[in-house]
Amino acid sequence: MATTRVTFGEWMPDQSGISGALTDAKNVVSQAIGYGPFPTPVAFSSAAAENLTSLYAAKAPDGNTTFFAAGLSKIYTVSGTGTLTQVNTGLTTASPNRVRFTQFGKTVIACNNAEKLKSWTLGSSSTFTDLAANAPIAKFVTVVRDFVVVANTYESAAQQQYRVRWSAINNETDWTEDVNTQSDYQDIPDGGQIMGIRGGEFGLVLLERSIHRMTYVGTPFIFQFDNISRNKGCMVSGSVAQYQGITFFLSDDGFYMCDGQNVVPIGAEKVDRFFLTDASETDYSTMSAAIDPVRKLVIWNYKSVDANRKLMIYNFATKKWTYGDAGTDYLGEASSGALTLEDLDSVSASIDAMTTSLDSLLYIGGKYFLGGTYGTRVYSFTGASLTGNISTADIDIGSNSVAVLVGPIVDNGSGSISIASRTLLNQSVTYGASTAADSENRVSLRSAGRYHRFKLIPTGANWKTAVGIDVDIVPQGSR
Questions:
Q1: DSSP-assigned letters across all residues of 30-65
Q2: What average pLDDT does the segment 80-91 reach?
Q3: How far apart are CA 193 and CA 375, in angstroms?
Q4: For residue range 133-161, what is the model confidence (pLDDT) as tens digits?
Q5: Strand locations in 381-436, DSSP E?
Q6: What's the rounded Cα separation, in Å, for the pair 290 and 38?
Q7: Quick count: other Cβ atoms within 10 Å of Cβ 2?
Q8: Maximum Cα–Cα distance for the chain, whole Å?
Q9: Residue 229, Cβ neighbours under 10 Å: how many?
């Protein structure tokens, strides 16, 4: 009896199972070969007085980190032990807007599309105050070179949805338009409203129907705005995330990335149709996105049509997708201060009862990690592995056959196997009961049909990589 090794390829739900693509890759992450575990979110902070909708981690020049969490009316600092300290109240953020942050030197700047820009000086502030008397009201804020830049501003008693405004050079408190200080603004009239902005060496302005790059050119024009994507823009402001000059976002037909020159589809014919069918369009405003720099992932949190919150997970190193259960309402990049052994008493009364390993980045000062919010608490994705599901394509040996034996190939673990067999492609795919591998890492079964799909649930508290399965399939006799 010949054994065939089936290695796990790419999950592409937009393609048929007969094409050879994986038909499921849930609660796992893509690796160069195979799939690895994805952690559960665990509560990190104490409870706030309102639901939290945004997170931000700022690092001072001395290396100390300040971690902020915000709701619609309050901003908190989050200590290394998860203690929330309210540092601002009275904001009038109107949902679905949320507080957004950026850092300019030692100053953390917050906007919420309702009040003037707020500021916090790292190392000395105890509350957020107005950045300046003439600071603008804006929906988005970032830093481009030596300027604080805001977009989708509120001015002259009206929302200027297509306006980009920037501060004086190297002075975040001066917003008076002046060719000498280089503070000014630019309206972009041909792309709809601005849905997001990202900074760095150049600025990237994402509108509904276009994308503009803003490049510093000095006086008298200050910034040059080039339309690099006409009729293709960003559909959801919460879908924008950036990593090392690459900006990821959701457009009206799927997921894209932009390096400031080219707009590249990353979900086309892979996951775009799956997502657009699964996501609740009326809840796009609750979408959030964040980078997991350790695992090289960009992750989108969204509400599905079945009312559950889910994750779309893109590994930008392998250029492959997975998805999963969210367990949080919003995502955000987070960081915490280092903890002493005494501080751990505030985290858990017992080391054995801790939901996060002591080796986690969560307990190392100044290290960024993937965080989120659920209701009134901050969560960290540092818990035990979620229950993963990896399903193969339809395996066809050319005639009716019987699958009789399966062996999971899981590094540092094993797995449970279920099978769905059918004779014709127009028949429904129905999996049988899942069976755990025995002491010899084998699952005996007898399932007849022409097309066979195998579902693997990796097992083992510390499993590392699910590579594939070994299967024995024999031709079925006929009369």
A1: E-SSSEEE-BPPEE-S---SS---EEEEEE-TTS-E
A2: 94
A3: 30
A4: 999 999 999 999 999 999 999 998 999 99
A5: 389-391, 401-411, 414-422, 435-436
A6: 15
A7: 8
A8: 92
A9: 20
pLDDT at residue 356 tops 90: no
**Separation of alpha carbons 123 and 43, rounded Å:** 27
Give the alpha-carbon dihedral of 326, 327, 331, 333, to 10 degrees. -110
Q: H helices of 249-310, where?
A: 272-278
User: What mean pLDDT is reported for the chain?
Assistant: 92
Q: In this structure, are residues 296 and 317 in contact, taking their beta carbons and an 8 Å threshold?
A: yes
- Cα separation, 304 vs 429, in Å, equals 22
Rounded CA gap, 287 and 54, in Å? 11
DSSP element (H, E) containing 297: strand 297-303
Two tokens, residue 340: 């002493």
CB 333 within 8 A of CB 55: yes
Give me the pLDDT at residue 364, please. Answer: 44
In the chain, % helix, strand, coil (3-state, to 5) comes to 5, 50, 45
Question: How is residue 158 written in tokens?
Answer: 């009206």
- Element containing residue 345 per DSSP (H, E): helix 344-347
Task: Say how far residue 475 (Cα) sits from the centre of its chain.
Answer: 45
Cis check: omega of the bond before 220, within 30 degrees of 0: yes
Buried b (16+ CB within 10 A) or exposed e, 166-177: bbbbebbbbbee
Q: Is the per-residue pLDDT at 343 higher than 70?
A: no
Q: Which residues contact 76 (CB under 8 A, 6 or more apart)?
A: 48, 52, 68, 69, 70, 84, 85, 86, 87
Of the candidates 160, 149, 163, the one whose C-alpha atom is nearest the C-alpha of residue 216 is: 149
Does residue 260 surpass a pLDDT of 70? yes
Per-residue pLDDT band at 385 (split at 50, 70, 90)? very high
C-alpha R_g of the chain = 25
Residue 344 pLDDT > 70 = no
Q: Mean per-residue pLDDT for 14-21?
A: 96
- Please name the amino acid found at residue 384: A
Across residues 278-282, what is the average pLDDT?
A: 98
Q: What region, left, alpha or beta, does residue 460 occupy, with left being phi > 0 and alpha being psi -120 to 50 degrees?
A: left
- What's the DSSP call for residue 277? H
pLDDT at 339: 35
* CA–CA–CA angle 383, 389, 395 (5° rounding): 160
User: Are the beta carbons of 333 and 370 closer than 8 angstroms?
Assistant: yes
Residue 359 scores a pLDDT above 80:
no
Residue for token pair 């980045």: 361
